[in-house]
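Researcher: Batch entry, complex prediction.
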Amino acid sequence: MSMTFDIVITTDRSMMSDHHHHEFLGFMTTGPAFGVPEWLWGWIAAPKPKVDKLGRPKVAPYGLRKIEAALQDAGFNAAVVDPDHIDKHLDTMKVLMIGHHDFFAYGPPSSEWWTITGKEPYNRVSFRRFMESPAIREAKRRGVKIIVGGPAAWQWLWALDEWRKWGVDTVVDGEAERVVVDLAKKALAGEELPDYVFIGPADVPQTVEEIPNINHASVNGLVEIMRGCPRGCKFCSVTLRPWRSIPIEKVLDEIKVNMSEGEKGIILHSEDVLLYYADGIRPRPEPLIKLHSAVRQLTDEPIGWSHASLAAIAYAEEKHKLVTKITDILFSSKKQRYLGVEVGLETGSIKLARKIMPAKAAPYRIEEYPEVVERAFAIMHEHNIIPAATLIAGLPGEEPDDVVATTELVERLRPYRSLIVPMFFVPMGAFKNLEWFRRNSIRPEHVELLKATLRHSAYWARDIVDRFYLKGSRYVLVRAAIKWIVNYIERKAEEAARAVEVRAGGG
Amino acid sequence: MTARGMMTADTPYIIVWDPRKEGPDFVRKALREAFLKASKRVVVRVIADDISYMEQLREILSEFIAQTIIVERIRGSGE
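Model: Structure tokens for the complex:
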């Protein structure tokens, strides 16, 4: 292996971090520093990972690892490099590939914090700092081709000034494992690159075998077990992708890569973990028990889920006692006492649910959705599963009674250990005039919803931090900082809500 | 560069767009036609010197998700 690289793959610090081995802390990068100085916020949310002499991080975001694997497997001299070490490769680097979840903080929840606080989120500031750093400017001066991509690729179409100013050559939107190889060939051959590539179904990996396995460790041991989602919610782009489950052997191979490089964590990534090899939208016990048993046999370290749907949780338990069976497997290790997962609650309004996510409650009827949500929360509470639930508010077509129904549902969820975060839909035009957007789009009922979620999440946050999430002496500083922020938010919550109310013209 | 070199196999559907002469609806119509002809890949060749054309194109691009769309520039001819 050469000591420097032709193709360097990277991202800014808000993404290149293990978040103290706690994925949820990474969410703090989507907000501006709140209650503490920015450097401390950055240290809590996104500490620097360890790197080797070449600046290669011990762990890197999974998406970057997939691109690295696709390029390395195709014979390119490519590697993921930490953003602070790009200068080590200036003499050889010909292509710089940059991925991100939220380059410009236009996605949720960053856009929401930005709208509410009026302050640029940490991830946006961090990305700009990175793109304007001396190493990146020097790379561009030397003619390095810059290719950007990842889930937030679309944001570049709304950031033409930055596209021009930073000299981005190509924006790639979609599953890029195949296309990136062609682009790399072109770039290294000095051929003209396209401005933009949207990857349609014909150019995504056609079989799961074609999806390369990662060659190096991913952040917190995240490995995908499924791509796509069959529910077809109107606000979600994942649903546009083909739905594929990844064979168990392939999942285990990637976990072994992580373990071999010292990454102990395991997060099974899927838009809905319980739909792994499901029968349509009905979870099946056999593949899920097989998967969890196999992973538990590999290691006694905690196993996490990325996402699950509330309907699948309710159905899996009510029909097959499957949540009990899976948590029995997971908690058979003394090292695991709880399971964290993100769930999309979205709305408590049946009327709105019918319009924007008619299959969200399936196999139950959409009319039962609020009850399904409550049952799923109760099941999770009983099984030490801690959900971070998101709500979607402010969508076009939403009416005041829809928001009220959601607030009432949030209040009914109070007995169940969880965090609930509202995501306000922020249209692109809003960023040109945030004050106008606040006055015209954030209504009094949104403020009530915001207050209800703040009350709920502040109530449970201390319990979660103390009893589950950040146990042990090595997290004493992080725990103290988080509790300080929670206290601060609680003290400021009513004040903040009033400020939003006043700005929104409701007070 | 051609789209044929960029991807593989199927011949792409080529659209040439001069934003000084035609509005973005021209591209929408052509993309719709490409979709109806079941083209898996479309190349939009834009006669332009920089990416300002994207301001007109971005909304249209978000309407088409069933094909690979490659937007390339025929540089230096947008005088």
